[in-house]
């Protein structure tokens, strides 16, 4: 598939992101677009092994377990058979800008609405606002109930 038909989904396994992935898969099937689910994870914190603040008794960081999101995303995709091509990736960052910057070639970004009540002015949380502010394509914010 060409890059002009590519949907990026912010996916963290929460009910809101599951709703967003389901919506994106249905939209991807309609548009014949590939779907990429991206988990934005905080960057690894660096500790000095010789300090008392080390996370492990021998001065090394504990091994990072692989996230179960790939399996969860595959289960959700199987609900939408036939479904468009789906890939799952992890991205290191802290904000919606990291997702938006990584989706520079997408035609659509889809994120879940985590807040049930609207925030003061925008009706969106900080992550969603940051993503919308820096996106170079349309952003769909999907509520949990869809």
Automatic annotation (TrEMBL):
CDD domains: USP-like (cd00293). Residues 5-143 form the UspA domain. It holds the Pfam family Usp. It comes from Actinokineospora guangxiensis. This is Universal stress protein. Gene3D superfamilies: HUPs. Belongs to the universal stress protein A family. It comes from the Bacteria.
């Amino acid at each position: 598939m060409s890059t002009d038909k590519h949907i990026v989904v912010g996916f963290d396994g929460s009910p809101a992101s599951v709703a967003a992935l389901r919506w994106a898969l249905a939209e991807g099937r309609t548009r014949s677009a590939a779907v990429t689910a991206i988990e934005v994870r905080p960057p690894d914190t660096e500790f000095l092994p010789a300090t008392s603040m080390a996370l492990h008794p021998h001065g090394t960081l504990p091994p990072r377990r692989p996230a179960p999101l790939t399996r969860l995303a595959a289960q959700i995709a199987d609900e939408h058979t036939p479904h468009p091509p789906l890939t799952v990736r992890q991205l290191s960052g802290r904000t919606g800008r990291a997702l938006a910057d990584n989706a520079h070639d997408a035609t659509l970004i889809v994120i879940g609405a985590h807040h049930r009540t609207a925030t003061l002015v925008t009706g969106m949380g900080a992550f969603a606002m940051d993503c919308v502010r820096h996106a170079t394509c349309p952003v769909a914010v999907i509520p949990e109930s869809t």
